[in-house]
Automatic annotation (TrEMBL):
InterPro entries: Beta-barrel_OMP, Curli_assmbl/transp-comp_CsgG, OMP/PagP_B-barrel
A cellular component term, taken from the record's GO annotations: outer membrane-bounded periplasmic space
PANTHER family: CURLI PRODUCTION ASSEMBLY/TRANSPORT COMPONENT CSGG, CURLI PRODUCTION ASSEMBLY_TRANSPORT COMPONENT CSGG
Protein name as catalogued: Outer membrane beta-barrel protein
Ranges of residues in domain Outer membrane protein beta-barrel: 309-462
Cleavable signal peptide: 1-28
Organism (species): Faecalibacter rhinopitheci
UniProt keyword annotation of Cell membrane present: yes
Keywords: Cell membrane, Lipoprotein, Membrane, Palmitate, Signal
Nucleus as UniProt keyword: no
Length: 468
């Protein structure tokens, strides 16, 4: 009876933890969309509002859009079988026309289905002529009136969705302990849009703009798997997945293209803003100049710009574990100070001084100083977060008097995060290969003495940054 009570208590405790995890992490499950929802107006993007708030033009430009189609030929990605559904919505011409209308800078005319329009006008003419004889003189006069001519466009807008790149970035993290665990995953896709304005008088391409938009998918899962006893298994799982709608991503990319086309065309005097809104429009142009100065995006929407100066000073707190001839090594604290000089934006030379202790429980304990010279390679120098790899040589010297130095080779790796300009926070691991077997004052076996190092620290960068 006591055993059963203990098992039930454990079950209740574990279920409480699982439920608490679910309610805290998966708020969407609490408000699960299980009820019917009424129709609403379509969602807007940040650039929908920007287009609607643009200053008024001096004169609207008549534009025609014959087609603005999916040019990728891309089907929806599938991990299990063939999927014949297209990855891009096929109504992109309608999206572009709506964006042009929202901007209030253009008068759009129907050209995508011009055959339908001409056919309907012909039906109107034929109907008027057929029934003209049965009408009064006044009605006949009205019936014989010619239909007004169609508007013609001074500019044709062309282009389309030119690429759909799937899985440009994927990743995730998870952990499991005694049958209880959780994981999260993400994936980024990207679409690219080109839009160009063509003069109908000369056929000259007046302006071309290019925009892109990433599409983010995320999933969060939690699970519980545990044998309560030999014949009873308790299992539970919960999860949620969020996928950014492709339609909204396409809509935002097209609206961004229209917005940029208006700004860029104004710079080249293709069209002009109303005189009363000159000051407001100048502010938008100045903002666009700032964007152009940093317009160097990578595929994951990270702005590429120099982040580290040519010089740096560093300070680290370390933990050392000796791998020598004795057992029961202890983790002993230490510190490192040093300086760096960048040979390029990726590679730097580092000189450092370290002070630490090495110890085997109840057998050996000794304080050491170390001088190290390393070459370091930063993989993503323009990012706020970057992995790095380093290697070099060093001298290990016991702090007691008249002690000889020992040579060693270093290799390590870690990650650096820049929360502020010119300030880097680091976490790393290092392995020191000894050239001698007497670091612990004992020579035995064929292996040299080594040290495992792990630590955290701060780098302060200063000086001129590398532009390339």
């Amino acid at each position: 009876m006591y055993k059963l009570t203990c098992n039930l208590t454990k079950i209740h405790f574990l279920l409480s933890i699982l439920l608490l995890y679910v309610f805290n992490s998966c708020s969407a499950l609490i408000n699960a969309p299980t009820d019917k929802e009424q129709s609403t107006l379509g969602e807007v993007t940040p650039y929908t509002q920007k287009l609607k708030l643009l200053p008024s033009p001096k004169e609207k430009v008549v534009v025609a859009v014959y087609k603005f189609k999916d040019q990728t030929g891309q089907y929806k990605p599938s991990e299990f079988n063939a999927n014949w559904s297209t990855a891009i919505p096929q109504g992109t011409t309608s999206i572009l026309l709506k964006a042009l209308e929202d901007s209030k800078w253009f008068t759009t005319i129907e050209r995508e289905n011009i055959s339908d329009l001409l056919n309907e006008r012909q039906i109107i003419k034929s109907t008027r002529q057929e029934y003209a004889s049965f009408q009064s003189a006044e009605d006949q006069k009205i019936a014989n009136q010619i239909l007004p001519p169609l508007l013609f466009a001074g500019i044709i807008l062309e282009g389309g969705i030119v690429s759909y790149d799937s899985n440009i970035m994927t990743g995730g993290a998870g952990a499991r302990y005694f049958g209880i665990g959780g994981s999260t995953q993400y994936r980024q896709d990207r679409i690219s849009v080109y839009l160009r304005a063509v003069s109908t008088n000369t056929g000259k391409i007046l302006k071309t703009v290019y925009t892109s938009k990433t599409i983010l998918s995320q999933s969060l899962n939690g699970s519980f798997f545990r044998y309560v006893d030999l014949e009873r298994l308790l299992e539970a799982e919960v999860g949620i997945t969020k996928n950014e709608p492709v339609h909204l991503a396409v809509k935002e990319a097209i609206e961004k293209a229209v917005y940029d086309l208006i700004i860029e065309g104004s710079k080249d005097q293709l069209w002009n803003v109303d005189q009363k809104d000159q000051s407001n429009f100048k502010e938008l142009i100045e903002k666009s100049h700032i964007e152009d100065s940093i317009n160097n995006y990578r595929v994951d929407n990270v702005i590429l710009k120099p982040r580290r100066g040519k010089f740096a000073v560093l300070g680290n707190f370390n933990g050392q574990i000796i791998k020598g001839d004795y057992q029961e090594s202890k983790i002993k604290p230490g510190f490192t100070v040093g300086a760096k000089y960048f040979l390029s934006k990726n590679i730097n030379f580092e000189a450092s001084f370290s002070s630490f202790a090495l110890e085997n429980r109840g057998i050996f304990k000794q304080n050491f100083n170390s001088i190290d010279l390393n070459l370091e390679y930063i993989f993503l120098p323009e990012d706020n977060v970057s992995p790095f790899l380093f290697g070099g040589i060093g001298l290990l010297t016991p702090q007691k008097k008249n002690s000889d130095s020992r040579g060693k080779a270093n290799i390590g790796a870690g990650f650096e995060y820049l929360p502020l300009p010119n300030v880097g926070v680091r976490a790393y691991g290092e392995y020191d290969f000894g050239f001698n077997d007497d670091w612990d004052n004992f020579i035995g076996g064929k292996r040299k003495d080594n040290v495992i190092v792990f630590g955290i620290g701060v780098n302060l960068y200063f000086g001129k940054k590398f532009n390339k």
